[in-house]
Amino acid sequence: MRQAKISALGCYTPPGVLRNEDLEKMVETSHEWILERTGITKRHIAPPEMATSDMAVEAARAALSARGMEPSEIEAILVCTVTPDMMFPSTACLVQDRLGVKRAWGFDLVAACSGFVYGLTTAAQMVAAGAHDRILVIGADTMSRIINYKDRTTCVLFGDGAGAMLIEPAGEHEVGFIDFNNVIDGSGAPFLNMPAGGSRLPASHETVNKCLHYVHQDGQQVFKYAVRTMYETCRELLDRNGLSARDVAAFIPHQANKRIVTAAAERLGIPEDRVILNIGQYGNTTAATIPLATRDAVCQGKLKKGDLVLFAAVGAGYTAGVNLWRWEI
Fold it and tell me: Is 299 tagged catalytic?
């Protein structure tokens, strides 16, 4: 089987910014309270006319431009999101049309905050099997549309954004994708979800009045599961490949909460200077956090060609996933 590699990266965040000081005027909270508990100072918010597909297209165009590739060369599009433009058609269809990709197929992948890691896993396997040579994996979420800005436990956490990576076959002397470790645990469904809008609780006056179309979260349960599972899945993957924390040049986790990331990294024994944290500037953008953090790691010189990079995420479901790559850009 062929090796797959990440050959390009592109990101987009909307221009609007919601700072902690702005939230102080909207809900009972403070900049100090938010910063201490989450590490967030601001987050980007999409304007009313902008949807998830719009941000996804911008991120995809940035990735294609970085690679010097025409949209017509793309063969598959995977859009990882929990905030699609609509229930159907899939956001991948809308992105395909806007990009003018005539020959590609694609689909939406729903795994909440683990979505992008699951998308990378899927694309890597498709390339390795020889099914396709050029796959766009896009993580995009407009979380501001499903957040109750009267609920201080959730509204301080989330922002909007998108990121895309291009997956292609690795060259003769390149490594690229090494291994993955993805898991789900459906017993966690009650602790992080959006209760209404599906077949269980279709939209009605009652579901709207009860704010059931917003994110609901039991923060303590999610925190405990996230720290433990991020550590366990990473540890298993490294052990399986005969590697240790010392071999990891960059640990790029889902940016859900600074305390979750630092706790998991400390248990793994990964030095602080190798842990990529940018939650302060973007908040939790769900499927977009890992590409956004990867872009910042590259720009800061913390991720270079030949480095071993560990992507990790935990999300609603529960879902969790880890990917191990050799960075080849």
Answer: no
